[in-house]
Amino acid sequence: MLHGAHQIKSGHRLTIAWHKRLRRSWAIMAVIVAPLLVLSITGALAGVHTADLLDALGLSFSRLVLGYAISLFIGVGVALLIGWSKHTNVFLPFLDVLQNVPSFALIPVFVLLLGYSTTMIVVFTATSVVWPILFYTLSAIRAAHDDWNEAATIFGAVGFKRLTHYLLPLSIPAIITGSIVGISIGWEAVIGVEIIGHLGGIGTFLNDSKDTLTLTVGIISILTLVFIINRLIWTPLLARSTKNYAD
Amino acid sequence: MQTDPSASVSFARVCARFNDLRDKHKFVLRDISFVVPRGSFVSVIGPSGSGKSTLLRVLLGLMPHTSGEIVRGFKRPAMIFQNYALFPWLTTLENASFGPRMDGKSKEESQKIGKEKLREVGLEHFAEHYPAELSGGQRQRVSIARALALNPDLLVMDEPFSNLDTVTAEELKRDVLRLWKQYNMTVIMVNHLIPDAVELSDTIVVMSGNPGEIKKMIAVDLPRPRDVRHPHFFHYVDELITELRVTP
To answer: What are the helix (H) ranges across chain A?
Structure first.
């Protein structure tokens, strides 16, 4: 009897889990399909080839992702090393000065070094995206409760283990927030250089638009991609970090 | 200073000052000298600002002392904090397993130890919960489990019952006494509740403030388990209240 009740209970649980998964799949489909549908309709109305538009958007996005990956690695790495060091305050003024150098002022330098190329766009994007990631991460480390720092030390998170088992997990919400801010700056960098250098991508697409409708479709395509990424990546990550990092 | 094998900790004329420029000439601790015998339960009481918590931090090497000598006869210290200091991004089990994991044990082995310690404090069913999902008493129990997972020979507690309601604090006190005996460890507890200090301690160190100095050391010579309604118990409470009242 009890065994039967247990079977019914676990069966019920499985059904609930299946329904949840189904609802989630529908939500993901809706988040992707609905904006793409809007984009296709407006594209058709403007006489834009969807394939050309998606090619341009894909190219810019791949440059942004590469730039972001580099800046994530460098920004988080440097912030962790500085936060780990006992001389954090020595590094901060230098970083602050470097951060305040206007990114676009560096374009001629990058062109001289790398020419107008995809590498140049990726490197330039990385130098723009890295700062919010670095500073948000560093702020999280510096703002950590004294009790946490002491507990980490007493319970053995010293040396390299302090980086991997304490400072890195401590910084995750800040890394997510820094990434969201950084990527918005990264879009500006990628599109800006694509317009200046005429290197393909959505920037060049927008620059070459012959009419307002095509320009509007180009902008809608960027907003669509930003919306999809936000709903599929950043919103769940933020929700998770809010739940797991509540003090 | 000679090493006394029966001592878990020995302080000899220990002084400490603040590090920041504004207060760098101000002593937080001055001429602190006392010995904590191995396996004993010592409470440190005193007014706010008398350097009680600083004393613990200096003892554990979390803060430097400026002069004097500390002989540390312990090998595996652990600490319980007033605000629990649990890592909010780790589950209850991960928090309890943190020490063994840092000690180089495998994840499986650490979690086995963590589970065992959670069972000892009655929280085995909350292993997958995050600290934010627990009550204050439950969080302090996780904090105790995390400390026990190191199999400590010295347990340092910084006002462990201050943030808890009376019923929970009473339960935890009983658990702390049980675990103290079970683990045969030395306990040093900073506390501001005089009856708790009398109920739990072998020795009570009374500190005075500005700068933090030892005013008196009182050996509590009452049989265990202690009867908190016994006249002798009140005698100790009265003595401590009198000492703290005349503290400048």
So the answer is: 2-46, 50-84, 88-99, 107-114, 118-142, 146-154, 160-162, 168-197, 201-207, 212-229, 235-244
Give me the CATH number covering residue A70.
Answer: 1.10.3720.10
Q: Which of B60, B87, B101 sits opposite A148 (nearest CB)?
A: B87
Give the range of the structural domain holding residue B109, as residue numbers without chain letter.
Answer: 86-152
The answer to whether the CB atoms of A154 and B79 lie below 8 A apart is: yes
Do the domain assignments include residue B125? yes
Interchain CB contacts (distance < 8 Å): A and B: 62
**pTM > 0.80:** yes
Q: Residue B79 forms beta bridges with which residues? A: B156
The complex's ipTM works out to 0.91
- Per-residue pLDDT reduced to its tens digit, B113-141: 999 999 999 999 999 999 999 999 999 99
Q: What is the pLDDT of residues A151-161, one digit of tens each?
A: 999 999 999 99
How many domains are contained in chain B? 1
From the list A159, A165, A82, A153, the residue with the least C-alpha distance to B63 is A153
The candidate with the shortest Cα–Cα distance to A141, out of A174, A98, A164, is: A174
Q: Provide the number of structural domains found in chain A.
A: 1
| pLDDT value for B32 | 94
- Is residue A25, in this structure, part of any structural domain at all? no
CA A226 remoteness from chain centre: 10
Structure tokens at A155: 């319970």
* Strand, helix or coil for residue B24: coil
DSSP B212: B
Pair of tokens at residue B60: 């554990």
Which residues of chain A have a CB within 8 Å of the CB of B60?
150, 154
Q: At how many degrees (to 10) do helices B166-183 and B136-148 cross?
A: 10
- Cβ–Cβ under 8 Å, residues B49 and B27: no
> Min CA distance, A148 vs chain B (Å)?
5
Which domain range does residue A122 map to?
50-244
